[in-house]
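Deviations from the work plan: none for this task. Representative record:
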Amino acid sequence: MAHSSRRDAPEPPDFSLLKRLAKDQLIYLLEQLPGRKDLFIEADLMSPLDRIANVTALKQHEVDKLYKVEHKPIVSMCDQLCFLIRPRIQTVKWVADIVNADKAAGKFRRYKIIFSPRKFYVCETILEEQGVYGDVSTDEWDFYLLPLDDDIISLELPEFFRDTFLEGDQRWMTTAGSALHLLHSLYGPFSKAYGIGRSAKMTYALWRELVEEGEQRARKPDIGTVFLIDRDVDFVTPLCSQVVYEGLVDDIFRIKCGSAEFGPDVTSSDKSVKVMLNSQDKVFNEIRNEHFSNVFGFLSQKARNLQTAYDKRKGMDIKQMKTFVSEELKGLKQEHRLLSLHIGASESMMKKKTKQDFQELLKTEHSLLEGFEIRECIAYVEEHINRQVSMIDSLRLLCLLSLTENGLLPKDYRSLKAQYLQSYGIEHLLTFANLRQLGLLVEQQPGETLTVMESKVGKLVNDKTAGKLTDAFSSLAKKSNFRALSKRLALVPKSGEEYDLRIPRDMAYIFSGAYIPLSCRLIEQVLERDGWTGLEEVTRMLNGNEFAVTAGNSGSESRLKTDAQRIILVMFLGGCSYSEISALRFLGRERGFKFIVVTTAILNSARMLEAMLDSHV
Amino acid sequence: MTFVTANWNPLGEAFYRKVELYEMGWNLKDGLRDCLVAAAPYGGPIALLKEPQRRSPSARPQLEIYSSSGASMASFPWKSGPVKQLGWTVSDDLLCVQEDGTVLIYDLFGGFKRHFSMGNEVLQNHVMEAKVFHSPFGTGIAIVTGAFRFSLATNIDDLKLRRLPEIPGLQGAPSCWAVLTQDRQSKILLANGADLFILDNTSCTPVTPPGLSPLANSIVQMAVSFSYKYLALFTDSGHVWMGPANLKDKLSEVETKVRTPPKQMVWCRRPKSQQPSVVVMWDRHLLVAGECKDTIQYHLDDESFLVPELDGVRIICGTHHELLQEVPAACEEIFKIASMAPGALLLEAHKEYEKESQKADEYLREIKEQSLLGEAVRQCVEAAGYEHEPETQKTLLRAASFGKCFLSNFPPEQFVSMCRDLRVLNAVRDYTVGIPLTHSQYKQMTVQVLIDRLVYRKLYPLAIEMCRYLKTPEYQGVSRVLKHWACCKVQQKEEADEVVARAISVKLGEAAGISYSEIAARAYECGRTELAIKLLEFEPRSGEQVPLLLKMKRSQLALSKAIESGDTDLVYKVVTYLKNEMNRGDFFMTLRNQPVALSLYRQFCKYQEQDTLKDLFNQDDDHQELGNFYVRASYQEGKLEARLSHLQSAVDEYNKAKNEFAAKATEEEMRLLRFQRRVEEEKGERVLGSSLQDTMHCLISAGLHKQAEQLYKDFRVPDKRYWWLKLSALAEKEDWDELEKFAKSKKSPIGYLPFVEVCVKQHNKYEAKKYVSKVTPEQKVKAHLAVGELEGAAEAAIERRSEAEISLVLSRCSPTTDRALLDRLNRARSVTAKK
């Protein structure tokens, strides 16, 4: 692991500025509606809002009561109502209904809608159609960047994934472009940009447009390089079971906006506890990127250290004791509390994850990734479905099967689908339609050789002039080519060799040494080659749309690897998983880079597949 | 070089000079006689309407437009109604006020732009007199009608007509009137005989100028200064009264000894005027009356026209164009005969220096002794700005530059910027350009406006040169000029679209901040749609192209451009537009070719117009999506019958889509639903809407084995699934008898290990043990272990001679309690290992 030429990764810039900006703007908007008002907040804006401005701050600006948007008639006595919502048709309709109900009851109130992150024309159309356009004032809270941690910034837009890749909708592109532009103007200028994927290309173009329109201020960049990547470049990685601590916590307890709720089984009391999981939590910070099998070891070592620290008390005189109590004890107590929480969480996970079933599940996943014993895998999936082990997990395995095998044989496809429908109901016909649309679960096309397919794909790529995204969801280019990619990029380490998970030697450790995540491998390769040269075959299999742009004179300046150049902003369009972040952190440590992950949302297999369910809309 | 002071005339303490600007390039037969004349300030263009009273169709009056140097810019016969007044707007457009109150607007080249009317009252009573005036709000028009009522519009670009109140006691036409701008309001000052009135929006106030000569019976002419601050009145007694426009004071009164009403009277002032004056003109006689009561008289050879300027008066006649102004202080100091001012000495010093005479040093020493060299340089630079002759300018600047050599730390900015300004001024004063701007006017007007003026005159190359020379930011300078050029270019109808488009793209290619969509919009206005589309191709921001494309009814193209722009709002706007413009069929066809727009519209329909969504799929014959649509609809339905009917529609659609699988699955679902209803009715079990698996599970839990069995057969549920299901359902229910019966019913397709495991899971080892014996030899060890029978496991493992299994059992043995077993196993392992 030790690397002689390795440099320490530079410190990331301070992103708390983003929070301040967002807060100031929100307060400004609230002040636009002077006087007491009730504030209705869209459910999925609640947690992000909590990170930006707490209840006290809101109350200071004459917010009387806070409500969650529940799409039900409201009970409010206030004569001013403010709605902080996402630009969604249903929510706008709900607001319109409230206004109309008030009108019918002869009640007079003032209404204001604050759309976050932006207002869509269609929202105004709805207000107009419902006849309340004149009664409601609208505004935009362009809050698109929430720093979740020192190196994670989230756009908190989970719908980006479905809207962009399934519905073929470009509505969030502008937001992504603006977000990048904001980062560029605060922490840039970015002198290098790499990317792959249609959304990436489009975001890049929109961002450049903004840059050219706006004023150029010369400043010393904090971040020099940016890498944009579409989620549909790599569907395999987020579908794998996560085994790194942070990812596991997300899979099991669901981390929401950087905080997780640990239930009574973890806290060993009758209360649930909400915990912020970030680098501030010293215990968590040390184990978040560790493979799960090491976590217990770490924690027990930690516990021993803690004990030693406590033990220092013995034999202290009064004075020493005083300093100990005033300086160290608080920290130790805090650490103690966190330690017991994480031990509890690990125990709870252990219970679930070391069971036979989980081991077998992992084994199947690994076989799929390696492409061995496919028949056994199919049998396993079938049993999984038959026994109704888990609706989402079954789907996940099906998708992994299809992605790694370039589609299922028609016979298997039908039989597995039929079984699934028997287990979970016919409404999943729609789910399967969606998965097929996205290319996650497809049937192998009989008779279509690889070359035919490739020429079609090639043509499709060439036809798109200037990289503009004209048709976002042609189902043609949905071949995953995983096997070939895996071979070319050496994603699956040779099996048979022992992999010591305590001393990771490459990014594969995040999947127990079985697989190097495609997305992270691409980033690694491109940074190493300073572009896409030599990766032509790979990009062809990924449907192209790659780009590498160096701004200004690329001569001596870029070769001089400044600190800024070693801070790399990776933007995942469509979300990324904690495992990928862990992998990038590992890569950063190895190569002396600091990766800042900007993602439209934190993704895991469950969230990704739930977005595909139609009942969910 | 003629003597500089040759054309100077003293007026009080100051001097006045008359400088020739141009010898007029026009060739007017009768000079300005019988002409309606309008000349724009700031050296603007001149419009002439010859013999305006001619009305017969055979002999139309001729309208001619010239530059200040008399170069013809347009000439055409006037075919509209009789014109009462001509005037120029601030943006160099010509206003022609007709008798009927219609105002026609022409550009510099005689191109008709638009017209507007001054209202019904004017139409009925006709315009008796009109005046065009400029104020901070733009160009305005004031009219007095045949009924002696005033109408006023302060800004013709934002036309708000105001009819001013009646003037009491006014029986005939007012003897004279003028427009004042006071307190951010335009007012009329009029004289009726000796009475003066100020007319504003609401009232008519009589006023009296303080100290007006009592000899006067009538005020016959009045003049308001360029800045609206001063007023001059000419009375029938031949007196000129001068005072501030607020009439609170009197500056002076001069007796001219001429009693005929003058043809024109204007103020002649300059900023920091020492001796302001009023210029009064009769037929052949020009009189400059100063505040000091001195006068200068000039004889005029020809019919003339006076144009008041910020810093003087221009006199235009049939042959010449002159500027009359007070000699600026700096010039006076330097050029006055026997002046000892530092500037004059410096000029002298430089002259001697050129002659290589030692006197140069003497002069210099003299200035330096008074330490006035800096002052001298400043004077020379300033004076250069006021001089019209380039030779004089050069002399002065050379002197300044010479003086500068003897100064350290003298700031160079003034000198440099003056050189630059003069270069620009000389360029635009050139005969071919004909804009005789003075330095003060230029500073007041700003470079921006000057460039605009050049652009109006289509002097694009000069404008660009100037922008580059002055280093005007590209966005405000070169790009703006190029845009105007392009807008002009698209109007050249004789050139082919292709040629024009190429020419424009070649010229504009590199310039920053060019909006091709504006140029294209211009082309479209000129009726050149094809050209407009070609030009839009150059517009890099697709979003900018959309509104114009929609206007041109290129909706398809607009849609693709909107999509390219990545702005969904724009796409949505186009879609909404199309929806209203097109018939449904065409609309759907258009969307069909644009997946992004289609998906956007589908999303909208999903929430707002479910039926439209169906129509959309129908139109496309997208039976697969229709099927999905019905399935989705069935889940939003509460009533079973409605659900079934939706599902039936779905089956039909899936069949059409040749998706047998989905059709079959849907049919099965319908069967299942019917079955579930029967069960609910007969047995009261709530199973409606559950999946097949859940239904069976529920039935078994409820002990309805027959029904479960029936589903198993009807739906051809795989054996394994059914066994798993029944097994776990029974175990959960802890119906051990039934489980045993089930186990014995036939050979288990999933083996018997699951039986063992399920029982253990329910903490019933007793039951579990029943099945251990049935387990296949391969799974025996696992089964024994599951129920916690180490010995059984050990036996099985040893029997199977499997090292792995032996180790597995070993790992479960505890060294204290299972001593004997451990030994046995270890022995067995070593035996197996040997083999």
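Residues 349 and 355 of chain B are 10 Å apart (CA to CA).
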